[in-house]
From TrEMBL:
Its main location: membrane. This is Cytochrome c oxidase subunit 3 family protein. Keywords: Membrane, Transmembrane, Transmembrane helix. CDD domains: NorE_like. It is found in: Cell membrane; Membrane. It comes from Azospirillum endophyticum.
């Protein structure tokens, strides 16, 4: 059943709430465009490394924990679904469903971070952390170290984005529980949903580059 809820006044610089919502959505798209440029630079560095040292990158890729990476991919894809359902619930003014779906999305995000932390611990014990705890012999040792430098940089920055997203979603869930959103006003939910989907899309690109490289070769 739809719950009407409040319809707040727009900020002074906007004529209507629709105009304010359009500005917020456009602002998020601009922000995501800058993030794409940022991640694009790091992925370009990875592409250069892989093109220059394919054998070393393939060997490094075989060190990654493909089971954890695959489970985490499923976790994030599921969280993207629950976030999309949360936005749909907000559109329909279903406060309780919105609160529950946001809570599930946040829990899935925490599960992702927990699995990633466990994976990091395994890489520490295997001495695969460049600059702090790295020990690898063989002709491709330098390439493996560079691979893991980019690996920790990319996944670490992605993890920060996930953490920020979880904080935003928890904040939304608390507001939704208090009835701050309705079918007439749910812009924060929609904008946060765009951010969360971006985080998921970035991981979809990282997964094959990190976990599948070198798996099909001898």
């Amino acid at each position: 059943m739809s719950e009407a809820g409040p319809l707040p006044r727009p900020e002074p610089q906007y004529a209507t709430t629709d105009q304010q919502a359009e500005a917020a959505t456009f602002g998020m798209w601009v922000f995501l465009a800058t993030e794409i440029l940022f991640f694009g630079g790091l992925l370009l560095a990875y592409t250069w490394l892989r093109a220059s040292h394919p054998a070393g990158v393939a060997e490094a890729g075989r060190h990654t924990k493909i089971v954890i990476g695959s489970v985490n991919t499923l976790v994030l894809l599921t969280s993207s679904l629950t976030m999309a359902l949360a936005v749909h619930a907000a559109e329909q003014g279903r406060r309780k469903a919105l609160t529950r779906l946001l809570a599930v999305t946040a829990l899935l995000g925490l599960l992702f971070l927990g699995l990633k932390g466990y994976e990091y611990h395994g890489e520490w014990t295997e001495h695969l952390v460049p600059g702090l705890n790295f020990h690898e012999d063989g002709p491709h040792a330098r390439t493996i170290e560079l691979f893991y430098f980019l690996y920790f940089l990319l996944t670490g920055i992605h993890g920060i984005h996930v953490t920020i997203g979880i904080g935003l979603i928890v904040w939304l869930a608390l507001r939704a529980r208090r009835g701050s959103f309705s079918s007439g006003y749910y812009t924060p939910v929609e904008v946060t949903g765009l951010y969360w989907h971006f985080v998921d899309v970035v991981w979809i690109f990282l997964y094959p580059l990190i976990y599948l490289v070198g798996r099909s070769g001898p």
